[in-house]
Amino acid sequence: MPDLLTLVPFGQLLAFLAAGIMLNLTPGADVVFTTASGIAGGPKTGIAAGVGVGLGGLWHVTLAAAGVSALLAAHPGALMVLKWAGAGYLLWLAWKSWTAGAVMQPGHSSASALRALRRGFLTNAMNPKVALFVVALLPQFTDPARGPVWQQILVLGALFCCTGTVITCAYGAAAGFAGRALERRMGVMNKLSALLFGGLAARLVWE
């Protein structure tokens, strides 16, 4: 398999990484989700949610390399179904946060982190905007003359997801520490998380 610099010239690789980091630093749906998760469950939960979001991004990159994302983008009906399914899942998360108890349950940090990981993956994997973004961005940095385009998409996508995961986890951890400092007001923090999840669902449907 060709090495990285064979697939993507160094200058173009730096430009891609810079663009990806700037995009990931801009608060979006992934940041909102990990922030809400960190507020509700603490730093470990926020980090786990960020890792889940990153895995969801890799899912979209794999689909793009296989051509499935482009196929979805060409069929608005399929995208609409995926969009409403994702919004419904986020509303369910909002309801769970809104009705959660005011006190964090001790000894359940591992279970909470695993749930956050799973939820992060599902939230990102069910977001059609991520699929469209991957289809729109990654092919611009590919060139058939350098080798199979699907390989280039996988490499670039993996790099984008890695930098994005680090940044998103940092957001989740920061929110977790802030939430931990306000643990006595956990009921309020859960309500805030619910509002963030609900707003994310509305954004997914109406934007």
Strand content range: under 5%
Task: Characterize the largest beta sheet: strand count, sense, and whether it forms a barrel.
Answer: none
Distance between the termini: 40 Å
Poorly predicted sequence stretches spanning 5 or more consecutive residues? 102-108
Number of helix segments?
A: 10
Q: Helix amount, in percent? A: over 70%
| Molecular shape | globular
What class, by secondary structure content?
Answer: mainly alpha
SSE layout and pairings?
Blueprint: H1 4-7, H2 10-25, H3 29-41, H4 43-66, H5 68-73, H6 76-98, H7 109-125, H8 128-137, H9 149-181, H10 186-206
Helix pairs in contact: 2-9, 3-4, 3-7, 3-9, 3-10, 4-7, 4-8, 4-9, 6-10
Explain what this protein looks like in three dimensions.
This protein has helices at residues 4-7, 10-25, 29-41, 43-66, 68-73, 76-98, 109-125, 128-137, 149-181, 186-206. By secondary structure, it is mostly helical. The protein has one domain (29-206). The longest helix has 33 residues, at 149-181. The chain is globular and about 55 Å long. The termini are far apart. 44% of the residues are buried.
